[in-house]
Automatic annotation (TrEMBL):
Recorded superkingdom: Bacteria
Record-annotated Transposase IS4-like domain positions: 137-308
Known function: Involved in the transposition of the insertion sequence IS5.
Protein name (record): Transposase and inactivated derivatives, IS5 family
Keyword line: DNA recombination, DNA-binding, Transposition
Amino acid sequence: MKRPGLSDRGLAKRPKATRKEVFLAEMDAATPWERLCACIEPYYPKAGKGRRPYPLETMLRISFMQHWFNYADEAMEDALYDMPVLARFAGLDIAVDTIPDATTILRFRHLLERHGLCERLFAEVATHLAEKGLLLRRGTIVDATLIQAPPSTKNRERKRDPQMSQTKKGNQWHFGMKVHIGVDSNSGLVHTVVGTTAKVPDNKVLDELLHGDEKEILGDKAYTSNERNLSSSDPERGPIWAFPYKKPKGGELPQWKRDINRRLSALRAIVEHPFRVVKRQFGYVKVRYRGLAKNVAHQMRLFMLANLYLVRRSLCTS
């Protein structure tokens, strides 16, 4: 039987980069590491006070890989041992360096949550993208998506998460929370993230999703009201509320209104791109924690990274 050599351990030089390596290289070039580390550095443990901490950028890179590949803390620790490409991205050499364990990774996440750093990191990336001319903030498209939560009561409290709730979409009931986002209408990048329990109506969160300087605001029928609709908009006094016309009860919309709704749908389609990245590319389809606060902080980081993912090639060439 052939004995395993260096090539079998993944240490030999390969003529072709894998897709994971290409992805990590692109995200490495697109992420403003120095700016993000500067936000966290005042709160990060200093050497000389107990056990020597890992480098801040190493822990931040590990945290981001958790989101990109949907790893739990224990799975992230194992992946650093199993996949040298991930260890190299974190700046670690598994033959020499000690690998952060699951508890260390968990404590870093708690540090971000405890000091409200997830919001600061999200804002820092948004500022970075605005400086690059990628986030224009002239118009906003609003939308929301449901994130499922475990309905099981097989836990210590013998009950479901009290901060989650049920809502009906179509003919199906869902238990969990909602993520509401405000997206730049030009670039499709997210500038605002708000999390609520699932039963909160979309239009109740509309004002929180706006930055106040919009020329036009787009959304689906859930945001239409008597005061905020296309017919009542006055560009001289405020933004254009480009929400679709609702079909009257027991009646049908005239053809010209259906044509307008179809055009508005095409304009709103860009709001689905961040949801696609978070749910499909990053694999986030269920809440990971109990309570709204931890999950909203998690979603802040996900949409921050989704913004970088959507414009990674533009950032790499700029």
